[in-house]
Design brief:
There is one protein chain. The protein is mainly beta. The protein has a single domain, classed as Methylamine Dehydrogenase, Chain H. Helices cover 7% and strands 53% of the residues. The protein has 1 helix and 28 strands. A hairpin with a 4-residue loop joins β21 and β22.
Length: 331
């Protein structure tokens, strides 16, 4: 009886995997030839799938309440959404969405882990912050379960990035004015003191630096990932909230909702290159894999702006839904 049960479960797991492969068409066959832009609409609880060539909304997929951030599986088939919740109703779930099929496959119940926020894929696993629980966790899509949790002991563990080479994690902790450097294999946690209200965070393509923006003092800290120490601090703007590197690592984009600008820096020279006025409270950003365009969510305007990174001009905008914020791009 035991052998039969094991065999049955193995067969069902194989059947489920085959169903995903056969049932999930490519992004191209879903009607998008140039990849797909994913935009979370916090006030309407949806993930909008956008054709980046036409800037048209292809579909809106329901999520949990108040989705904040999104990441994509390495093969580009699945999107993982952190359902943060509202002030009255803290969220405790992740939405797993089949991008080509345009539907939510499952909603992962996180139990006592409340307010998931920052989220990223690393080596096939999904790492996310749990702001209300002062921790980070790891979701295994194959096993369909949370298989690792690590407390940061810091207030407001909000955004997260992972080193592509080592898998080391870095989280921005808004309430503690720190960045936590977490070595997953050893569970070693190092707290790095930065400026006031660190939130936006990005890791350079070569994994050598982490840039973290402090929304309360208008500055940005540059952390050496080899030593886990701040090596430089830059004055950025009024309230910098998100940070993104271009794929070649030459430039860094910082969104500032208070000034309504996206600020462009030369990463090596540490110098401001341009201030691009977009208005409407710019927050979440994503850069296309070819490095030619950036999409910037303007939360108050219910719009997303398109920036040409070759000449640093705004070339268009569209309306994905209500209160857009977190973005991701699928090749």
């Amino acid at each position: 009886m035991k052998v039969s049960t094991i065999a049955y479960r193995a067969a069902m797991s194989l059947l489920f995997a085959l169903t995903l492969v056969v049932g999930s068409s490519s992004i191209s066959s879903a009607g998008i030839d140039q990849g797909a832009l994913l935009v979370l609409n916090k006030s309407e609880n949806t993930l909008a799938i956008i054709d980046p060539s036409t800037l048209k909304v292809v579909a809106r997929v329901p999520t949990g309440e108040a989705p904040h951030e999104v990441t994509v599986s390495a093969d580009g088939r699945l999107a993982f959404v952190s359902n943060y919740g509202t002030g009255e109703r803290p969220g405790n779930s992740l939405s797993v969405i089949d991008i080509a099929a345009r539907k939510e496959l499952k909603r992962v119940d996180l139990g006592a882990l409340i307010r998931p926020h920052g989220i990223t894929e690393s080596n096939g696993k999904i790492f996310f912050t749990i702001e209300g629980s002062r921790a980070v966790a790891r979701y295994d899509p194959i096993a369909s379960r949370v298989d690792w949790i690590m407390g940061t002991g810091q207030a407001g563990t909000h955004m997260i990035v992972a080193s592509r080479t080592s898998g080391k994690l870095f989280t921005a902790n808004i309430g503690s004015n720190t960045v936590s450097a977490i070595e997953v294999g050893t569970s070693k946690v190092t707290q790095i003191a930065v400026g006031k209200g660190p939130e936006g965070i990005a890791i350079s393509p070569d994994d050598r630096e982490v840039w973290v923006a402090h929304r309360q003092d208008g500055a940005l800290s540059i952390i050496d990932t080899a030593t886990d120490k701040v090596k430089e601090t830059l004055k950025v703007g009024q309230s910098p909230i998100r940070v993104k590197f271009t794929p070649d690592g030459k430039r860094v984009l910082v969104s500032d909702p208070q000034s309504g600008e996206v600020i462009v820096f030369d990463a090596a020279a540490r110098k401001e290159v341009e201030r691009i006025k977009v208005g409407g409270s710019p927050v979440g950003m994503v850069i296309t894999p070819d490095g030619h365009r950036a999409f910037v969510a303007r939360s108050q305007a219910n719009k997303v702006s398109v920036i040409n990174l070759d000449d640093l001009t705004v070339t268009g905008e569209f309306e994905p839904g209500l209160q857009p914020d977190g973005l991701a791009f699928v090749k």
